[in-house]
Amino acid sequence: MRLALLGRYLCCLGFLQAQPALASLYHDYNSEPEDGALDPGSYLDRWNLPFIPVPKIITEPAVGTGLGLAMVFFHESDEQKAEKNDDKLVPENISLAGLAFTSNGSRGYGLAHLGFWRDDSIRYRGFLAYSDFNIDFYSFAGLPLSNGVGLNIRGPVVLQDLKLRVPGTPWFLGVKQLYRKVSLSLEDEIPLPNPALQQKVNDYLNRHLGEKGTTSGLGLVAEFDSRDSPIDPQRGFNYGAQYMRFDDALGSDYDYASYRIKGLNYWVLSPALDLGVRLQYDGISVNDDVLLPPYIPPSINLRGIPASRYQGNAVAVTEAELTWKVKPRWRLKGFVGTGRAADKFNELGEADAANSIGGGFRYMVAERYGFAMGVDVARGPEESAVYIQAGSTW
Predict the structure, then answer these.
(1) Mean pLDDT, the chain, as a whole number?
(2) Whether the predicted pLDDT of 11 surpasses 60
(3) CA angle, residues 387, 225, 369, in degrees to nearest 5
(4) Gene3D superfamilies recorded for this chain (predicted)?
(5) Of 55, 86, 281, 289, which one has the greatest count of Cβ atoms within 10 A?
(6) Which residues does residue 95 pair with via DSSP β-bridges, in sequence order?
(7) Backbone φ and ψ of 127, nearest 5°
(8) Which tens digit of pLDDT belongs to each residue from 285-297?
(9) Closest CA to 374 of 385, 389, 353, 393
(10) 31-390 has which fold?
(11) What are phi and psi of 230, to 5 degrees?
(12) Nearest to residue 53, comparing CAs of 67, 65, 64?
């Protein structure tokens, strides 16, 4: 017994004695020489490994708790690698690879790429993923439901957009493409409000569940971007509008149109305080005799509100976020948001508002790129949620 205790003591003593050396080695290769603060971006420079691992604890109410991991790769041009200045650098290319699993059986795998080419005169965004999600929907077959319906959504999705800068201006014009092939199945029995709805719901189930449906569309995009950085904006404006058409001529099983108007506003109130405001409207137009799958209509997208909890053919969201720069690398955030969902645009004023409130913090993990990570805690109408954030909030 004494020998065992002595062995444990010696192991602990050796570990404690090694701790300063290990800490020094870790600090030397992961800190910024100028301020001595932890900065994995410095590690990337030293070891020529241009990626940052981004772990994620998932607490999204729509899919349950879970774990995810993403690798964020920063690809600098030769000219950018030679730059050594205090300005935040926007790499020529940013790539991401990630996977995630949650407690309700949902899982997903994805690849993404962002390109800022020819001195940011060409912008590209591409996304390829395979998802197998179990999500509760509160609107089904065009009918609102008091209790959610659990559906399994499985299949690949491809999203791309390419924008060209109007020379000498902050304006971009471009095109966007979306392709989804989804298998939709019922996770749980549907609680019907009354027997009169039985036939309509059964017709919908026969048409949409158990078969793969393809969503394929093309669209136009216009964007105004005067932000000081797309990765960590603190001042400037980013307004965009897009229109997409989904049609059988493009290989889509569902004919409809979607549109979005989004505005991001950033102001520096003082050396220590920043303010951001997001305004967003999403809508779809579809013939009355067309029943779309439940994953197509837009929903209120706010921290603290489960995905697909409040859906409609017209959705409007407003969100404000105040940032307090406690130290050069540390920031505290507080935010509030509200959203409305309705069948038509002119009915938004009468729709019930879904509100959220919360706060969080950020740490600048790679100052060279302005790349920050942190945690947000938000409270919505029904429940609370915790989010691990990486990069810009919006």
Answers:
(1) 83
(2) no
(3) 55
(4) membrane protein fhac: a member of the omp85/tpsb transporter family (2.40.160.50)
(5) 281
(6) 73, 113
(7) -145, 125
(8) 999 888 888 899 9
(9) 389
(10) Porin (2.40.160)
(11) -80, -15
(12) 67
The C-alpha angle with vertex 228 and arms to 226 and 233, in degrees rounded to 5, equals 105
| Nearest in space to 378 (alpha carbons), one of 330, 351, 338 | 338
pLDDT tens column, 118-170 = 989 999 999 999 999 999 888 766 677 777 778 889 999 999 999 999 999 99
Both structure tokens of 139: 């609107």
Q: Which sequence spans correspond to the domains of the chain? A: 1-29, 31-390
Q: What is the DSSP annotation of 23-72?
A: HHHHHHHHB-TTT--B-HHHHHHHHT--EEEEEEEE--TTT-SEEEEEEE
Tens digits of per-residue pLDDT, 86-98?
556 677 788 999 9
Between CA 196 and CA 204, with CA 202 as vertex, the angle to 5 degrees is 115
Check residue 347 and give left, alpha or beta (phi > 0: left; psi -120 to 50: alpha).
alpha
* pLDDT tens readout for residues 364-392: 987 777 889 999 999 999 989 988 888 88
Which is nearest to 308 in space by CA: 346, 341, 278?
341
Report the pLDDT value the prediction gives residue 137, as an integer from 0 to 100. 86
Determine the pLDDT at residue 5. Answer: 37
Number of neighbouring beta carbons within 10 Å of residue 52:
20
- Give the list of residues 6+ apart from residue 376 with CB closer than 8 angstroms, or none: 303, 333, 335, 358, 359, 360, 386, 387, 389, 393
Pair of tokens at residue 91: 């790499």
